[in-house]
Amino acid sequence: MADPATYRPAPGSIPEAPGVYRFSDQHGRVIYVGKAKSLRQRLNSYFADLAGLHPRTRQMVTTAARVEWTVVATEVEALQLEYNWIKEFDPRFNVRYRDDKTYPVLAVTMNEEFPRLHVYRGPRRKGVRYFGPFAHAWAIRETLDLLLRVFPARTCSAGVFKRHGQIQRPCLLGYIDKCSAPCVGRVDADEHRDIVEDFCDFLSGRTDHLVRQLERKMAEASEDLEFERAARLRDDIGALRRAMERQAVVLGDGTDADVVAFAEDELEAAVQVFHVRGGRVRGQRGWVIDKVEPTDTAELVERFLTQFYGEQAALAGSADDAQQPVPKEILVPELPAELTTIVDWLSRLRGSRVQVRVPHRGDKRALAETVARNAAEAFTQHKLRRAGDLTARSAALQEIQDALGLDSAPLRIECVDVSHVQGSNVVASLVVFEDGLARKSDYRRFEVRGGAEGGDVAAIAEVVRRRFRRHLSENETGTESGTDQTEGNAEPAPGEATGIASPDATLTRPGIDPTTGRPRRFAYPPNLLVVDGGQPQVEAAADVLADLGVTDVAVCGLAKRLEEVWLPAEPDPVIMSRTSEGLYLLQRLRDEAHRFAITYHRQRRSKSMVSSELDAVPGLGPARRAALLKHFGSLRKLKAADADAIAALPGFGPRIAAAVLAALHGPDRPDSPDQAEQPGAAPADQTDAGVPAS
């Protein structure tokens, strides 16, 4: 536990101007970001008597080893800089208005010739329309099932669509009239796009017009004595009305609004958001956040508005026709102190004026109370689950500490596993758990250079050596620099000032990239290194750490046969109870490392199998092979291509195209010239660093 007095800024050195500040730990990792109207007043509050601080604040200031700040000109700039730093550094002590799960949306691929309707999770893409979010994927599927009888649009994948086009026979949905079967030519591209656009209009809220149009067609069919068609239209109208009932009207004036509510205690808060579009609830989401310092509802609202809508704007910015990231109106339980600043910032994101207010009467007040009840219920359920999770994780770390005789609980654990098939395509994985939870952004994967030489023991030793040699090189002390500097990507504008306070402020911080200000990939050492294997693997890893002079990392191995835990220089394993939370955590860590290694090994094996037919092509090096596979997507598609398509790629020509086709089809292919180009470039050198998880 660090003493905040060791890095407290000198009296009078903190400016009284507004700005943004950040605390960093001993490894240079940013752990908290905040903004203040007066930097001096706010930062001095963190260095008060520890006994009087909020529990989370006390933990934060004792974890930190450095504080720095940037002075800005306006409050809007402070708001933007705080949001950028939180997004860039992901500080562990900041309130994170981020879903603990990805909410599904209904995606419509308008950028395809025959647009497709499907459930989607992930980043937004250009040319795709999105509707939602929905609380569950089954809610989307139920809605689609109701609407496909009215809007029989394509829902199948590209492979299924192509296959049924080749066999000239529609799928089951085509036979039961829930798809217009464009794959077999029942409708052309323009007719299918009209169906999809009507579907999008219905989900966008223009429902009454579609219902009236169907009622008019039903009446005309009845007058023409086309009773079967009239009955079908009657059923379509019923399906539309059932779908509309799922999205009940909550605001009679057709308002577009987000309604936000909180349920909180001293340490945590639950937030619920209802997305109302056209007066109907189109989506709902909710999650729970941790409080780092005493935070009232107004401050929670302020941070929600900046972080949540900043993320929504980033998502919408990557899609052509996504919905507006910020609604016209946001209903909140309390107004934030910096209301004018936040409204101006939100209006910039939307491109038009945004209103933030507290509802006091009528339908909006009733809806806000409903959202508040949902937040309270979610908070109650979270507390019941969270109590068990925290207890289990704390017990697991404590049991590992006791069983292995560690000085402290292993808050950061790394695990190494090796994967290969009879010594071919040898790869390794390194996974990271922090506080008993997976930290996937720190996962790494390695290609083992020695291959099968020495077996798993040698592979483990190589990976550990490369990981910790890189760690040592990234934490060497840098060159001297002045005390006034700006680190990170947020450089101060003219007239701004940046302050830094820490015991080693005259030196470049170890583990931090001086060009970007961000921590290097291998800057943080684990408290415990776990290897998948028994005593030989553990001894190999321990010998490597001893050779490198790393003495502050404990090592153990988990053998699969009896799940025994091996320690270096110990003849007998440590046997943990089969019901132990500590053993369960080690097993999850080992299984995750195994899964990650297997996944990477399969990728490598698939690439090697695909490229094997091209290895003997003269003039086709690794770079050109990769370019071919990236352009055509698969070896099958490459075989179906002609010489002109291959020769048109950058760096190719008629001769090398002929050589490729000759290798795939033999030299008798009619469109293959006789000669090939000169050999291509050599493969790039491999570094010690592992490949980050993608």
From TrEMBL:
<feature type="region of interest" description="Disordered">
    <location>
        <begin position="471"/>
        <end position="519"/>
    </location>
</feature>
<dbReference type="Pfam" id="PF02151">
    <property type="entry name" value="UVR"/>
</dbReference>
<keyword id="KW-0234">DNA repair</keyword>
<dbReference type="InterPro" id="IPR050066">
    <property type="entry name" value="UvrABC_protein_C"/>
</dbReference>
<keyword id="KW-0267">Excision nuclease</keyword>
<dbReference type="InterPro" id="IPR038476">
    <property type="entry name" value="UvrC_RNase_H_dom_sf"/>
</dbReference>
<dbReference type="GO" id="GO:0016787">
    <property type="term" value="F:hydrolase activity"/>
</dbReference>
<comment type="similarity">
    <text>Belongs to the UvrC family.</text>
</comment>
<dbReference type="Pfam" id="PF01541">
    <property type="entry name" value="GIY-YIG"/>
</dbReference>
<keyword id="KW-0228">DNA excision</keyword>
<dbReference type="Pfam" id="PF14520">
    <property type="entry name" value="HHH_5"/>
</dbReference>
<dbReference type="InterPro" id="IPR000305">
    <property type="entry name" value="GIY-YIG_endonuc"/>
</dbReference>
<dbReference type="InterPro" id="IPR004791">
    <property type="entry name" value="UvrC"/>
</dbReference>
<protein>
    <recommendedName>
        <fullName>UvrABC system protein C</fullName>
    </recommendedName>
</protein>
<dbReference type="Pfam" id="PF08459">
    <property type="entry name" value="UvrC_RNaseH_dom"/>
</dbReference>
<dbReference type="Pfam" id="PF22920">
    <property type="entry name" value="UvrC_RNaseH"/>
</dbReference>
<keyword id="KW-0227">DNA damage</keyword>
<dbReference type="InterPro" id="IPR003583">
    <property type="entry name" value="Hlx-hairpin-Hlx_DNA-bd_motif"/>
</dbReference>
<dbReference type="InterPro" id="IPR035901">
    <property type="entry name" value="GIY-YIG_endonuc_sf"/>
</dbReference>
<keyword id="KW-0963">Cytoplasm</keyword>
<dbReference type="InterPro" id="IPR001162">
    <property type="entry name" value="UvrC_RNase_H_dom"/>
</dbReference>
<keyword id="KW-0742">SOS response</keyword>
<comment type="subunit">
    <text>Interacts with UvrB in an incision complex.</text>
</comment>
<dbReference type="InterPro" id="IPR047296">
    <property type="entry name" value="GIY-YIG_UvrC_Cho"/>
</dbReference>
<feature type="domain" description="GIY-YIG">
    <location>
        <begin position="16"/>
        <end position="95"/>
    </location>
</feature>
<feature type="domain" description="UvrC family homology region profile">
    <location>
        <begin position="259"/>
        <end position="545"/>
    </location>
</feature>
<feature type="domain" description="UVR">
    <location>
        <begin position="208"/>
        <end position="243"/>
    </location>
</feature>
<dbReference type="InterPro" id="IPR036876">
    <property type="entry name" value="UVR_dom_sf"/>
</dbReference>
<feature type="region of interest" description="Disordered">
    <location>
        <begin position="663"/>
        <end position="694"/>
    </location>
</feature>
<dbReference type="InterPro" id="IPR010994">
    <property type="entry name" value="RuvA_2-like"/>
</dbReference>
<keyword id="KW-0378">Hydrolase</keyword>
<dbReference type="InterPro" id="IPR001943">
    <property type="entry name" value="UVR_dom"/>
</dbReference>
<feature type="compositionally biased region" description="Polar residues">
    <location>
        <begin position="475"/>
        <end position="488"/>
    </location>
</feature>
<comment type="function">
    <text>The UvrABC repair system catalyzes the recognition and processing of DNA lesions. UvrC both incises the 5' and 3' sides of the lesion. The N-terminal half is responsible for the 3' incision and the C-terminal half is responsible for the 5' incision.</text>
</comment>
